[in-house]
Amino acid sequence: MTTITRFAPSPTGTLHVGNIRTALHNWMLARKSGGRFILRIDDTDAARSEERFVEAIRADLDWLGLAPDGEERQSARLDLYDTAFEKLKAAGRVYPAYETQQELELKRKIQLGRGLPPIYDRGALKLSDEERAAKEAEGIAPHWRFKLDHEEIIDWEDGIRGPQKFDPAQLSDPVIRRADGSWLYMLPSAVDDIDMGITDVLRGEDHVSNTAVQKQMFDALHDVGFDHSECPVHDACPHFAHEALLVGKEGKLSKRLGSLGCDAFREQGIEPEALIAMLARLGTSLPVEPIADRDVLLQTFDLSTFGRAPAKFDHAELERVNTAIVHAMEFAEVADRLPEGIDAAGWHAIRPNLTTVGEAAEWWQLVVGPIDARAFDEDDRTYLAEAAEMLAWSETPWQDLTGALKEATGRKGKALFLPLRQALTGKDHGPDMGELLPLIGEDRARERLKSAAAD
Ligand code: GLU
Q1: Which of 36, 135, 428, 435 is the most exposed place for a label (fewest CB within 10 A)?
Q2: Which residue in 442, 2, 17 sits closest to 245, CA to CA?
Q3: 415 in a domain, yes or no?
Q4: Which pTM does this prediction carry?
Q5: What is the CATH number of the domain that holds 373?
Q6: What spacing in Å lies between the alpha carbon of 30 and ligand 1's midpoint?
């Protein structure tokens, strides 16, 4: 059976690192078994959903290399939810409720005041036909709740959390539809998971109690004959797995993390592959390593390695992974992002000094100039004048020059190399001079040595 996963963001904002992680893991789950990964835009909330966010989500997935195999949107599937709703209503599994927000809030307060859990008291189910008619006559349109089956204990084997058990009597019958006919998240999601043949629902542990409710929805939908026609597994329902949430390094859910998205990562020079390598393994028992090859990440991806403790997102760790990934990137992968003039040899020379690809321009400056002027003492000036004289061009000008200078002056180590590096690049540290000098070229090199000697 083909694995089918989905990533179901609501387009009420851009993706943040937590959503990105969920998208990645669903992508991996599907890819690992040659399955399908679907992007489902959960846009039933017309007031808060915006097209620009749909576009941003697509663009982010594209940048991350997590292209979906298909895209669906809930706003185009409202008829299907109506069909499911009518079936459930006919079977007595959804019921109208008339309480206002204030009434519900008051009920909650009273329950909490008595030390009781704030579970909906099913007041609406106790209304007589006359009472209901009276409400309607007053012009109060009902909202709709799904009626949980209190006789049916809810349990499932969670792919990450292990055996899960819920007593439905401890849960409120969820509101699934507003008085204006619009949908809340709960039912459309279950309907779609059935209709799209989703085999695995992998999401954050903040959805565990939603899953408990949706488990009963799957069963209720099945009982009323709403099944995926070609996918008998939905006689049961998808496998569920809930991953521990992502927290900041300090162990708390931080606001910063909640708004950290692809734009910010791009601006910081974080490569998508670095983010992927880190998020693929964060919160698992596998080490986070700078693995740019997704096949390697896929081979080791396994829900059984996921822990229950919150996964800690440490920005410094991401930067380390990024640096290592940049150091291993081939010229062809970055060519179109480099400043004019850098060729494969140039990239190779400066790559080990970079923490981001964007820094290449700064290092390339050492080749094309202008470079920082340095002040040298008299001794060094004499030495540099000699270097300018002795500079000869070959395949290996740096080795030749330093070899000849060592012999001629008796200098060695730092005294031999540092003034040359300073005069040729304006810096104390930097790329390997053996690679850099051929890029600087004979004329520029001689000129820089002469000018340093003259100062
Ligand atoms: N739209 C829901 C959310 O963003 C989807 C949750 C789910 O995966 O079912 O939280």
Answers
A1: 428
A2: 17
A3: yes
A4: 0.92
A5: 1.10.10.350
A6: 18
